[in-house]
Design brief:
This protein is of the alpha+beta class. The protein contains three helices and five strands; from the N terminus they run αββαβββα. It has helices spanning 18-35, 76-84, 128-139, and strands at 42-48, 51-57, 88-98, 101-108, 113-117. A five-stranded antiparallel β-sheet has the order 1-2-3-4-5. Strand 3 and strand 4 form a beta hairpin.
């Protein structure tokens, strides 16, 4: 890419091959195991084209309601199970061909889509580990 036209963190990217998928999944899991213990029960890492999506599952807090409303469409137990199985969309990484330069997007629950974001250090490109650190601070 020409210096005249720098990478756009919101466009482009390169399809992630199987070797990169395996490598980045291991990096994310290693970081999570070392730094995020107790913040999630399960991570789901999946790939599509040039994107890596990371979701977390957590143990929900017990509802503060002492008596569950009888007309509520699910029981307390069903509610807890549904919440356990509902992912928190931590982030989407966009691959540009460099192991340490990924674009970052957070899921906007208000707009039901991923929105490009800068990393906490102000950069638009950084490592998957930095993305995880930022996402966990934001969502967990």
């Amino acid at each position: 890419m020409s210096d005249r036209y720098p990478q756009d963190p919101d466009n482009g990217g390169i399809q992630i091959n199987d070797n990169i998928k395996s490598h980045v999944e291991k990096r994310i899991m290693k970081f999570a195991e070392a730094n995020l213990a107790g913040k999630y029960t399960k991570l789901d890492i999946r790939f599509r084209d040039k994107f890596c999506y990371v979701d977390a599952y957590v143990e929900p807090e017990e509802p503060v309601i002492k008596e569950w409303p009888p007309d509520f469409p699910e029981t307390r137990e069903e509610h807890m199970e549904r919440m356990r199985n509902t992912p928190i969309h931590l982030c989407r990484l966009r691959y540009f061909g460099n192991d340490d330069e990924w674009g970052l997007a957070f899921y906007s629950y208000a707009h039901n889509k991923y929105e490009t974001s800068a990393f906490p250090n102000g950069k638009f490109f950084d490592t998957p580990e930095m993305a995880m650190e930022a996402a966990v601070e934001f969502y967990l």
